[in-house]
């Protein structure tokens, strides 16, 4: 790191960490992560909300991408509602179903913005492959973070240690709170999400890329996996966890869920179980305050489901203005 600017460490090599490193490239940040790529997946939708720097980087590496608007709806009591018109009872049912509690509920908490959102769809793995040469990376896991008055020491499980003036952390809160020595972060839990894949003949244009089903059927969302694909995925909340990978739900669960998805896609049939991932964030008991020299980026570090990649980039660019 010889830029003359601050020494920047980025903890976590997922999609947020990678884009953060690229938008801070002139500061030559170092990514500390055992591998690049992370586990970016949400209901089968491989898309990013629009940000000009995302588009610029995709074009820079020659990664083909499609731009389009994504909208959502709610299937409730036999009718489809746009997000801006969802009955309060459906919102409450969805909130309780995905979070396991009504704590923190407010009207329209289901979606702060009911309007369509412009997004990208592209081959993420191809982008990672092409961008790798632009990244400074140390392949290791973070084993401890030590706070000093004017810098941060990051220890790794490979025995190496690095001093940084500032750290951008995309490591999920439940994990990073055990790594920072001498500083308390609140406990955090989230719902585990399991995903099944379905195929259906779509006989007419499908306006909504995702549909919430907040009823009692077990399933809470179905998502179209592509612009022209007939494949859809379906999510269900599993048990609450602090961190880690949940066990896979048996295929029999998804077979039993067929009647519920057929309310929206009458000829849907089950294809396969895709896997499981961390899902909805549960309300924190105490405010989340990171140390001054550590900035959380991404939804699981910031503990805010609204901090998608585009929001994280905006946060990092605001921070960058203080150094350029």
Strand content: 25-35%
Low-confidence stretches: 41-45
Strand order of the largest sheet: 6-5-15-16-17-14-18
Helical proportion?
Answer: 10-25%
Radius of gyration: 21 Å
- How would you name the oligomeric state of the polypeptide chains in this document? single chain
Global structural class: alpha/beta
Task: Tell me the series of helices and strands, N- to C-terminal.
Answer: EHEEHEEEHEHEEEEEHEEEEEHEEHH
CATH secondary-structure class of the largest domain? Alpha Beta
Average pLDDT rating: 85
| Form type | globular
CATH names the topology of the largest domain as FAD/NAD(P)-binding domain
How many domains, in number, for the residues?
2
Corresponding CATH superfamily of the largest domain: FAD/NAD(P)-binding domain
Measure the end-to-end span: 16 Å
The CATH architecture designation of the largest domain is: 3-Layer(bba) Sandwich
Query: What's the main sheet like?
Result: 7 strands, mixed
């Amino acid at each position: 790191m010889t830029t003359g600017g601050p020494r920047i460490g980025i903890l976590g090599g997922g999609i947020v960490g990678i884009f953060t490193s690229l938008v801070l490239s002139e500061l030559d940040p170092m990514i500390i992560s055992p591998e690049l790529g992370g586990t970016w997946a949400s209901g089968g939708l491989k898309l990013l909300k629009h940000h000009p720097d995302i588009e610029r980087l995709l074009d820079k590496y020659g990664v083909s991408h499609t731009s389009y608007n994504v909208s959502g709806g709610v299937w409730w009591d036999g009718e489809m509602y746009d997000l801006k018109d969802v009955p309060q009872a459906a919102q409450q049912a969805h909130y309780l179903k995905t979070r396991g509690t009504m704590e923190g509920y407010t009207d329209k908490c289901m979606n702060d913005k009911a309007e369509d959102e412009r997004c990208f769809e592209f081959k993420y793995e191809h982008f990672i492959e092409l961008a790798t040469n632009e990244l400074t990376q140390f392949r290791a896991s973070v084993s401890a973070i030590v706070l000093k008055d004017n810098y941060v020491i990051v220890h790794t499980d490979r025995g190496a240690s690095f001093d940084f003036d500032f750290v951008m952390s995309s490591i999920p809160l439940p994990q990073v709170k055990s790594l920072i020595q001498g500083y308390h972060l609140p406990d955090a839990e989230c719902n585990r999400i399991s995903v099944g894949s379905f195929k259906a003949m779509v006989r007419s244009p499908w306006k909504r890329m995702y549909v919430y089903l907040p009823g009692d059927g077990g399933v809470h969302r179905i998502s179209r996996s592509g612009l022209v694909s007939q494949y859809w995925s379906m999510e269900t909340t599993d048990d609450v966890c602090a961190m880690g990978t949940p066990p896979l739900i048996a295929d029999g669960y998804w077979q039993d869920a067929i009647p519920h998805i057929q309310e929206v896609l009458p000829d849907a049939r089950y294809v396969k179980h895709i896997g499981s991932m961390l899902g909805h964030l549960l309300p924190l008991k105490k405010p989340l305050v990171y140390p001054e020299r550590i900035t959380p980026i991404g939804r699981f570090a910031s503990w805010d489901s609204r901090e998608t990649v585009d929001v994280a980039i905006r946060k990092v660019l605001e921070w960058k203005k203080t150094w350029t």
